[in-house]
Model the fold of this input.
Amino acid sequence: QVQLVESGGGSVQAGGSLRLSCAVFGYTSCTYGMSWHRQAPGKEREFVSGIPRDGSTSYTDSVKGRFTISQDNTKGTLYLQMNSLKPEDTAMYYCKSDTCGSWGQGTQVTVSS
Done:
């Protein structure tokens, strides 16, 4: 059984920064291929950024140049550095193990104008 625990969310003003973390407890193999997703009120959950097994990175267009995904290879902890935050980034952010299909409980990010 694998458990994903997000942290680092909070409330910031537009233009501010936050760094999200996702710790993985359980199967190490579940850290190979992970991603961040978000869900705003009344909207569907959407992909934000991913880092598959080969270490490449991908981003949804709306966050390119502002968000950076990374992973600590020794611990498997996943990060999302979010800069130049906008009110439209407000959402619950979830990490996912794409390999194991497991989700974290989410961490709230609120950006005020």
